[in-house]
Amino acid sequence: MKVLIVGISGALARQVALQLREEGHTVMGLDRRPWWDAPKDIAVHEVDIRKRAAEDVFRRERPDCVVHMATVNALSSSGEERARINMGGTRAVFEHSVAHGVKHVVFCGRHTYYGATADSVLYHTEEEPPSGIGNFPELADLVAADLYAANMLWREPKLTTTVLRLVYTLGPSKTGTLSSFLRGKRVPMVLGFDPLFQFLEEADAARAIALAVEKKPRGLFNVCGPSPVPLGTIATETGRTVVPVPEPVLVRLLGRFGFPRLPRGALEHIKFPIVVDGTAFKTATGFTHSTDEVEALKRYRRISPV
Amino acid sequence: MARDEAVRDLVDRLELPFNSLGIDPYGISKKHLSVFFGVLGFFYRNYFRVKAVGLENVPKRGRAMLVGNHSGGYAIDGAMVITSMLLEMNPPRLAQGMAEKFINQLPIGSVWSSRCGQLTGLPEHAERLLLDDRLLMVFPEGARGTAKLWKERYSLVDFGTGFVRLALKTKSPIVPLGFVGGGDAVPTVANSSTLGKLMGVPYVPITPYGIAAPLPARLVVHYGKPLVFEGTGDEEDSVIIGYVDQVKAAIAQLIEDARNDRSHS
């Protein structure tokens, strides 16, 4: 099968590409960033998905499946630019796919779709609406991209659409929201709060996406693996020191003294859990994780010492 | 009487799927449970000298709902019921209550309630816990129940109906319980919502001696025979209310039994 990965130069997307290639698929990619050491048989087109040249790749290559991994999650990026990429990029992926005979699109979204609030439920199921936009409006573009992708299920019934909501990943690339949080020796937390965090080892996350390509499940799916772990335990098990800071103080420290510049709503994500139920995806694809939470933390401690 | 077995050993014997870090899929932590029950165990054994009767009515394993009356100005009743399940059941069980939503917003309260399995009171949580064969503790009187004054301590206020629908839907037995003594431990003469607002809680009970610190009153809890209702949970309100009334009557009888027991002991 011919698979086009949009956003192929991202750390997780590269692993998905290699996984699909190993399974015998013809893999190619689109990204405005280069992938310098990409294997020779993986063609990487250095082009922005929103530009005209990107459509030509769809027109010329006519992939069977498109995996959309070009959403920007980093909250440090400018909100306007993020929204343009996330919304414009997602729209382009689907429009080009419909126009050029793609049979299956896999949209890789985030479990943060559900939002973190004091009264949010543990183990969100796919039927639930997003609830965190109220306290974290900066998430709106990611939520909107997810909903736009989900729209395709009824707007384009001939196209098989798979919307994945993946939990955080942890692994050798040391990139992503959770890894960024664990970058330093000391991990700031909101005093008196220690939410459950759910994560997948990168290799497991890549396998899950590759399975979605292979099994073509239609619909919305949460993708998770092992049991969630409190953030404080994640920090200590990976060799970090937790620094509990009262919330009013932490708010004032953001963007100063080496603390990341984050919107106020981001603090909700280190106060309250976002935990999803991945049963539907497991049933549809047979996915099981190979690395449990304890082993994943041990490995991360080895590969990312402080 | 509660066994003298160390709380840590009892926590170790809980039949929950803890990982090697001592954390279960709901974030319940053995470390936190040991501290939590260490403190509650003292109150259970030495301060309130709780007497629990009818423990054989609580299933040793599998899903079940403990459904009881509120007794006392705050959650002493729930805390002692949970403690009785750990200290007196064999094998020990963790009863999981539905915490008031404001608790999860409070620093410290948020961590301790979730690490000890007392999840925010949401219907989704209750259903999931039962489907996972856990022991759920429910007080259908809600916050109106803890707000009862001393003179109303043996009465029951209106029950919600959601718990019966949930029991039917998940095919869970309801174990009624009658709890007495909480009204003497916290003899509420009034509830101050103004103080409550200042402290971030719905209200603060006021006692004749001012603060709402509990007195060492003897507490007694009676567990009754499980009630099993047939249905899907989608029945009309009139049917559900009939089942609720049966549970309420069973609890009222257990309160009477516990009152007699307490006055004789």
Give a summary of the structure in a few sentences.
The complex is a heterodimer of chains A (306) and B (265). Helix content of chain A is 36%, strand content 19%.
H-E order of chain A: EHEEHEHEHEEHEEEHEEHEHHH
What are the low-pLDDT stretches of chain B, counting only 5+ consecutive residues below 50?
A: none
Fourth CATH level, the homologous superfamily of chain A: NAD(P)-binding Rossmann-like Domain
Q: From N to C, what is the helix and strand string of chain B?
A: HHEEHEHEHEHHEHEHEEH
Known CATH architecture of chain A: 3-Layer(aba) Sandwich
What would CATH call the class of chain B? Alpha Beta
Q: Averaged pLDDT of chain B, please?
A: 92
Oligomer: heterodimer
Radius of gyration of chain A: 19 Å
**What is the strand content of chain B?**
5-15%
Number of strands of chain A: 13
Give the overall shape of chain A.
globular
Q: How many domains, in number, for the residues of chain A?
A: 1
Question: Which strand order do you get reading across the main beta sheet of chain A?
Answer: 3-2-1-4-5-6-11
Q: What's the Cα radius of gyration of chain B?
A: 18 Å
What's the helix count of chain A? 10
Helix-and-strand structural type of chain B: alpha/beta
Task: Decide which structural class fits the backbone of chain A.
Answer: alpha/beta
CATH class of chain A: Alpha Beta
Number of distinct helices of chain B: 10
Gross morphology of chain B:
globular
Question: What secondary-structure arrangement, pairings included, does this model have?
Answer:
The complex is a heterodimer of chains A (306) and B (265).
Chain A: E1 2-6, H1 11-22, E2 26-31, E3 43-46, H2 52-61, E4 65-68, H3 79-99, E5 104-110, H4 140-155, E6 160-166, E7 168-170, H5 177-181, E8 186-190, E9 196-197, E10 199-201, H6 202-215, E11 219-223, E12 229-230, H7 231-237, E13 241-245, H8 247-253, H9 279-285, H10 293-303
Parallel strand pairs in A: 1-2, 1-4, 2-3, 4-5, 5-6, 6-11, 7-10, 8-13
Antiparallel strand pairs in A: 9-12
Chain B: H1 7-12, H2 30-47, E1 51-53, E2 64-68, H3 76-88, E3 95-99, H4 109-115, E4 119-120, H5 123-131, E5 135-138, H6 143-146, H7 162-170, E6 174-180, H8 182-185, E7 190-192, H9 193-199, E8 204-206, E9 220-223, H10 237-264
Parallel strand pairs in B: 1-9, 2-5, 2-6, 3-4, 3-5
Antiparallel strand pairs in B: 6-9, 7-8
